[in-house]
UniProtKB/TrEMBL annotation:
Gene3D superfamilies assigned: Periplasmic binding protein-like II (3.40.190.10), Winged helix-like DNA-binding domain superfamily/Winged helix DNA-binding domain (1.10.10.10)
One GO cellular component term: cytosol
One family name in Pfam for this protein: LysR_substrate
Molecular function GO terms recorded: DNA binding; DNA-binding transcription factor activity
HTH lysR-type domain sequence ranges: 5-61
Record keywords: DNA-binding, Transcription, Transcription regulation
Protein's name according to its UniProt entry: LysR family transcriptional regulator
Domain of life: Bacteria
Similarity section: Belongs to the LysR transcriptional regulatory family.
Source organism (scientific name): Marinobacter orientalis
Length: 297
């Protein structure tokens, strides 16, 4: 049967050796000498050997000399483990995996994560950018801790907390006849060549649904979509956050009728607790991104 060792008596042994006496150790530890002596005596009984010479109370026995470096290492490991566990429990240390839609990843995450890492330098972040459906799937399957995305359909396995709204607009070439308009209504686009994309489903069940139903192309890849638009091959709709503001060939014109928005929020498991580090990330997301407007360029 193994010996049960408590950490505190091991600290007493080190203190007696360092101070050279039981009296000095008791004074340094702010403990009474009888209490300290009793704790060390109990430890010796558990080990079956004396640690200090009886005639010279501060001098180690050969067995005590063997134990001393091992006690010191055990205390060091204990303190390191206790410190790490405390940091993890308080959300100060750990690893978090986050999935977001690409527009959030490219436009909001650089500044947000820089600020988060400055506040929590010992939390490691893994960031994935995926389409909205895949973000939800990754959260539901436990592949990531948190998601920032839209939810296209209700899912009992997911919990959604709203952050902000992202206005939908028409994206077209700067040379297009409608490019200088302040806003556009859907019926003005009926005769245009419409290129549908993954976010075009936001037009479903609205007055503008026919644009999607009668689309000329469907392109899911953003790079390919922008190339088609730059070539003047058609127009599309995108959330403002997804529009590449540094693109000199394209422009974004708000869609005023119907006025549509993309809802963006935090997605997390409905029936599974978050780790402390994921809880810390969630708190900062809610603090910094709730109601955010004025996207960075």
């Amino acid at each position: 049967m193994g010996i049960e060792l408590k950490i505190q008596p091991l600290r007493y042994v080190l203190a007696v050796w360092e101070e050279g006496s039981f009296h000095g150790a008791a004074r340094q530890l702010h403990r009474s000498q009888p209490a300290l002596s009793m704790a060390i005596r109990d430890l010796e009984e558990r080990l079956g050997q004396p640690l200090f010479e009886k005639s010279l109370k501060g001098q180690l026995t050969p067995f005590g000399e063997y134990c001393l470096p091992r006690f010191r290492e055990l205390i060091r490991q204990h303190d390191r483990l206790a410190r790490d566990l405390q940091h993890v429990a308080h959300g100060q240390q750990g690893r978090v995996t986050l999935a977001t839609v690409p527009s959030v990843a490219s436009r909001l995450m650089p500044g947000f994560l820089a600020a988060f890492i400055a506040e929590y330098p010992d939390i490691n972040i893994n960031l994935h950018d995926e389409n909205a459906e895949f973000v939800c799937r990754m959260v539901a399957n436990g592949e990531v801790d948190l998601g920032i995305s839209s939810v296209w359909a209700q899912d009992e396995h997911l919990s959604y907390t709203h952050l902000f709204e992202d206005n939908i607009g028409v994206v077209l070439h700067r040379d297009h006849r409608l490019a200088n308009r302040d806003s556009l209504q859907w019926h003005e686009l009926e005769k245009e060549r419409f290129i549908a994309n993954g976010t075009s489903r936001l037009l479903k069940n609205t007055a503008a649904a026919s644009l999607v139903d009668n689309n000329d192309f469907y392109i899911s890849n953003m790079i390919s979509l922008l190339a088609m638009l730059e070539a003047g091959s058609g127009i599309t709709t995108l959330p403002r956050l997804a529009f590449p503001v540094d693109n000199r060939k394209l422009c974004f014109v708000p869609l005023s009728e119907p006025k549509l928005v993309r809802q963006i929020g935090i997605i997390k498991p409905a029936n599974r607790s978050l780790s402390p580090s994921a809880q810390a990330l969630e708190r900062v997301i809610l603090k910094r991104l709730t109601g955010v407007t004025g996207w960075p360029a």
